[in-house]
Structures are given as C-alpha cells and as structure tokens.
Specification:
Immunoglobulin-like, alpha+beta, five-stranded antiparallel sheet, 2 domains, elongated, 6 helices, six-stranded mixed sheet
C-alpha cells in the first residue's frame, strides 16, 4: 500500500512544480508591467502563451518592449494601428496583444494578433470625436513581454499620431500651399492634413483631414469634409493616389456619401463661405455626370457642365439654355482659380430658342 501511494504522489508533485513555474512566470510579467496596468484580458493572454510550451532555463527570454505603435484615422469610426516587431528574446514571436481604451477608461478592450497576421490592424466601431489610447505587447513561448508606451489619437477626420512606425511622408517641401483666394489659403502639412487660414477672419485657421482616392477613381477613403455655407455644397477632401495632389470632390445629392457625412460636425466646424472653400482645388479628374462649375471668387463667371459622354466640360451660353438642360443653380460647384486650365473643354452647348422662365426654381424639387 505504501509503495502504491508513493508512486501516485510523484506525478502530482511534477504537476504542482510545473504549475508553480508557470505562476512564477506570470508574476514576473506582472512585476515588469506594473500591477495597475494588468487587465483580465492581458492575464488570460499571458497564461495562454505559457501553456503553449515549457519554460527554458537557457538564455532566451520574453520579447522586448515594442516601440510605441502608430495610429491613423481612416474613417469616421475606424483607426489603423501599426508597430515594429521588437527583439524576440531568442525565441520566435508567436502573437501580440493589442489593447486600447477611450480616454478616462481602463484598458479593457484587447485583440490577440498572430505574428502571421498582416498589419496595420484596423479597428472599427469607435466613437467619433473621442480620444483613444493604444499599446501593444509581444509574446513568445516563454511568455508576454512588457507593453509599449501608449499612443493616443483623437478620432477626428484625418487625425494621425505617429509612434515608432509611420506612414507619413518625410517630404521636405512641407508645409506646401496648394491654393489660395483673397479670403483664405490652403496649406498641406504632414500627417495628411490641410490647414485653412482665413484672411477674412484675421488669420484664424482650422484643420481638415485628407483622404485618398485610387488612380482610376474606383475607390476612396473618406475622412475630411468641407461645406460651402454660401451655396450649400459639401465636398470631401482626398489625395490622388498617383500624383499626390489634394483636391475637394463634390458630394452630389444622389451620392451614398451623403448618408455618411457627420452633419453635426460639418455644419458647426467645417462650414465656411464659398470664397474660403475655393482655396482648395476642385477635383477635375473624376467629376459627376452633369456636374456644374463656376468661379465665385471674382474670377471667370461662366458656367460649365461636365458631359460624361464626351469626357469634356462644356460652356452653357445663357440662362434659357441652362433651364432647357434642366440644370439648377443650387448644383453649381465652386471652381478654384486654375480649374479651367486643368480641364478638357469641349464645344459649348447649342443655344436654345426657348425663352427664359421667370418661375424656374433654383433647386430641384422632389
């Protein structure tokens, strides 16, 4: 009986020793990270890593602390997060723990990311106009290393906060003026942003995020808007993928983008007179069919319409012809100073023989 009892105790002692070793590793990780910084998700994460292999008494250690991640707002509720791979401690990095939180809250939201997963990591469903902090930890079979320093970004159109990894250009020509009128100057700055300086308001300025549009116009990322409070037009601000030029694209009334515009923000913070809007170049490469354009900053006052069948802009000779073509004054977009030098201009529309209608509406109805 005694012999059998002694034999049955040995596996139990071995299991206890293994568990004690795992718990010691967890405690060591907690001490490195700080007790106050450990949430339940991080604790479960470290335990899961420890159970994938046994600790080694040799030189390898847990991975080093990663550099602060970079974050980039790519949509109104979405952020992309990226980071550089840290030193692996002599063992292959298996996965990462990415944690994030809103300002004033604890780190309670986490994502476990395999080393094989592509980065940057996209996080959606965030709260607009809120500030978020991110940190990342790497793990190998010996356990999780320390968390990186936090990166903080405010979720407003085009906001960027760079850590060790960045997608920003180091273009030495920035800041760069991309357009101006008597009322404002539009200046491109690092981080895919425009600074609009208003000369009509003693040099006050505001910032707009810059999105992206494919070189063939097939897709775009929309992050920044500006509204013409004089005429009622709304535009999104994008950069051409191939040339890097920043323009504003008209959001037509039938566009699906109408439903994604944060109107409360745009109406209060990004609504300005037409003379200010005109400082940003108007998109000439991907216009809407029948889009109308005219200068409103003391320049050329002729109205042109885009003929999609000819891929050219055509002058509308007079108001009766304008009405006969079923165009509306509300749909005329504001051209910038050089717009008519960039576009392909076709023959004018034929002049109608119909008389001008005094009761013709300014805007489409229904």
């Amino acid at each position: 009986m005694i012999g059998k009892s002694s034999t049955s105790i040995r596996p139990r002692q071995a299991a206890e020793a293994a568990l004690s070793s795992s718990l010691s590793a967890i405690v060591g990780s907690i001490r490195r990270l700080g007790m106050q910084a450990i949430g339940p998700a991080a604790l479960v994460f470290m335990l899961s890593v420890l159970l994938t292999g046994t600790a080694s008494a040799a030189d390898p250690t847990v991975p080093d602390k990663p550099g602060a991640p970079s974050s980039r707002v790519v949509a109104l509720d979405t952020i992309e997060v990226n980071w550089n791979k840290p030193a692996d401690g002599g063992e292959e990095i298996l996965r990462y723990l990415l944690e994030y939180r809103r300002a004033g809250e604890d780190f309670s939201i986490s994502k476990i990311i395999s080393e094989e997963d592509s980065r940057p990591i996209r996080i959606s469903g965030l709260q607009a106009e809120s500030t978020y902090s991110f940190r990342v930890s790497a793990a190998n079979r010996l356990g999780a290393g320390p968390f990186s320093e936090e990166t903080t970004v405010r979720l407003i159109p085009g906001a960027v906060q760079s850590g060790e990894t960045t997608t920003e250009s180091d273009d030495s020509t920035l800041p760069r003026v991309i357009g101006r009128t008597n009322a404002a100057t539009a200046t491109e700055v690092a981080g895919d942003r425009l600074i609009i300086t208003r000369h009509d308001q003693a040099g006050t300025a505001f910032e707009i995020g810059v999105g992206w549009i494919a070189k063939d116009g097939s897709g775009q990322i929309v992050v920044g808007f500006i509204r013409d409070e004089t005429r009622g037009q709304t535009y999104n601000i994008v950069r051409y993928e191939d040339t890097g030029k920043i323009v504003r694209r008209w959001i037509a009334p039938h566009s699906e983008l109408v439903y994604s515009i944060p109107w409360a923000i745009v109406n209060t913070r990004f609504s300005v007179p037409v003379e200010v809007v005109s400082a940003i170049p108007l998109d000439h490469r991907f216009p809407e069919p029948n889009q109308l354009a005219r200068r409103f900053d003391e320049g050329e006052e002729r109205i042109y319409a885009y003929d999609a069948s000819l891929l050219k802009w055509r002058h509308i000779p007079d108001w009766p012809t304008f009405q006969a073509l079923n165009f509306y004054w509300c749909d005329v977009t504001a051209a910038d100073e050089e717009f008519f030098e960039r576009i392909a201009i076709g023959d004018p529309f034929p002049t109608t023989t119909l008389p001008e209608r005094a009761n013709y509406p300014n805007c489409a109805t229904g």
